[in-house]
Amino acid sequence: MKISPKATTSVLLTSLFLLGACGKKKSESANNQYTVQSSKVATKKSEKSSSTAKSSSKATEGSPENTLASSFSNAEMQATTSQSQILKPANTSSSIDVDALINDDLTTIVGDWSNDLGETITINPDRQVTSTHRTATLQISPGEARDNCYFSGIGDPTQLVGGAGFIVIPAGVPNPHFGDVTDFDRILIGQSVAADEHPFTRN
């Protein structure tokens, strides 16, 4: 059977057209895949960059180190301000003569003193002390001066035990235990620093 040249040419042209169309589809498909992959890569890079920026921002603003440093700085400033306010009372005048006290002259502390617990003591020039909370008459022992305060002891002279500390702190002088300063005279009587919470002040 003979095939005419015209028919051969038609078959060849059809084959070439089909091959060209397939090649174009593959190329477009490859290009589309490349575009999608590139888009995905760009999206991932963008998300990663955004995540890194957020992490960096959080690390800078909310990290424990920075928070603690800031808190410590604020606390230190407040403590300094508080201490400054405590150590500088408005009035620091005192009528107490510590030098006279160590020389057995109690004139500057003689009189009535009371604390916030409702106890009142009366100090006499002969070192005798009476209290509204005690039946026995107490006596102040000879003392010494330290840090501008007068340190002594007080107790029932008829008893060998049961005495307590007796500390006189003039106005404007730091408390020897905690360093706080007041603009009034104080007397501490007790066996521990708990006495600092209930100082006697002049009536």
What does this structure look like?
The chain is 42% helix and 19% strand. The protein has 203 residues and is an alpha+beta fold. The chain folds into two domains: 5-86; 98-202, no CATH class. Strands 1, 2, 3, 4, 5, 6, 7, 8 and 9 form a nine-stranded antiparallel sheet that branches. The longest helix is centred in the N-terminal third of the chain and has 58 residues, at 5-62. The radius of gyration is 47 Å and the shape is globular. The termini are far apart.
The total count of helices amounts to 3
Order of helices and strands: HHHEEEEEEEEE
Distance between the termini: 143 Å
Query: Regions with pLDDT < 50 over 5+ consecutive residues?
Result: 18-46, 48-90
Shape field:
globular
Question: Tell me about the biggest sheet?
Answer: 9 strands, antiparallel
Pfam families: DUF6287
Protein name: DUF6287 domain-containing protein
InterPro entries: DUF6287
Keywords: Signal
Give me a quick take on this structure.
With 203 residues, the chain is an alpha+beta fold.
Topology, element by element:
Elements: H1 5-62, H2 64-86, H3 98-102, E1 111-114, E2 120-123, E3 128-131, E4 138-140, E5 144-146, E6 149-155, E7 164-169, E8 186-190, E9 201-202
Antiparallel strand pairs: 1-2, 1-9, 2-3, 3-4, 4-6, 5-6, 6-7, 7-8
